[in-house]
TrEMBL record:
Residues 31-234 form the Alanine racemase N-terminal domain. This is Pyridoxal phosphate homeostasis protein. It comes from Furculomyces boomerangus. The keyword Secreted does not apply. Signal peptide: none annotated. Pfam families: Ala_racemase_N. Keywords: Pyridoxal phosphate.
């Protein structure tokens, strides 16, 4: 194996312990079925090799180029989640990653259509799992559809985007709210799920909760938590485009 892919024994043991800790928290707090996504952005491929020893397969990345490079050298069993800000001109690149499992950051009808078309054009026969990101905290610089546009966006995807499998809705939530109990962003997500499941006649997952607040997110019904720093340690700030 390429030496870049070989973790030190010390790092491997550290990661296995961290992952097992988070997994027992998930078991203890969840009220629904929930999966853990290991957010490995900015961390070396060797960290992912070490993490695979726990049997976990869902990994999340934010930067398209970094994801492409990691996907190329790492085992194809990995189920990649793209969780970065989605740019139209990156849909094709993402669609060509053979083991891309989900795009969590669809932020409107036009982006949904672009991803839908790129997925088929890349020759994929299965449907691509997606979440629609919601700007629950209504912050001007945050990605995601506004709550008032959510129903229309979800209906559009179900009717017009036949290469996409609508898994549910996702939020990042505001930093301030990550310490508030109950978290207003998570409560809003629960409401949005309930209302839209009834209106659209389909089941919707909630993707919410990160290092700071994943336990609370699970208590409020999350089905998909995205945990980075609690597993891999602090990240150096990264100044590259998506
Ligand atoms: C980075 C990131 C995470 C993980 O954040 P941590 O605080 O490291 O757990 C989760 N979701 C999204 C969308 C992210 O960008």
């Amino acid at each position: 194996m390429n030496s870049d892919l070989v973790p030190t024994l010390e790092r491997e043991n550290e990661l296995i312990e961290n992952i097992n800790d988070v997994l027992s928290d998930v078991e203890a707090k969840k009220v629904n079925e929930a999966r853990l996504v290991l957010v490995s952005k900015t961390k070396p491929a060797s960290d992912i090799v070490a993490s695979l020893k726990t049997g976990q397969l869902h990994f999340g990345e934010n930067y398209t180029q970094e994801l492409v490079e990691k996907a190329k050298v790492l085992p194809k069993e990995i189920k990649w989640h793209y969780i970065g800000r989605l740019q139209s001109n990156k849909c094709k690149t993402l669609a060509e990653i053979p083991n891309l499992w989900a795009v969590e950051t669809i932020d409107g009808k036009s982006k949904a259509k672009k991803m839908n078309d790129a997925w088929a054009a890349a020759g994929n026969k299965n449907k691509l799992n997606i979440y629609v990101q919601v700007n629950t905290s209504e912050e001007p610089n945050k990605g995601g559809v506004e709550t008032v546009d959510l129903e229309e966006t979800l209906a559009y995807i179900m009717e017009e985007c036949h290469n996409l499998n609508l898994l549910g809705i996702m939020t990042i939530g505001s930093v301030e709210n990550s310490n508030v109990v109950p978290n207003p962003d998570f409560l809003k997500m629960g409401e949005l799920r309930k209302n839209n499941e009834a209106k659209l006649g389909t089941k919707l997952e909630l993707s919410m909760g990160m290092t700071q607040d994943f336990e609370h997110a699970l208590e409020l019904g999350s089905n998909n938590v995205r945990v980075g720093q609690k597993i891999f340690g602090k990240r150096a700030p990264k100044n590259v485009p998506n």
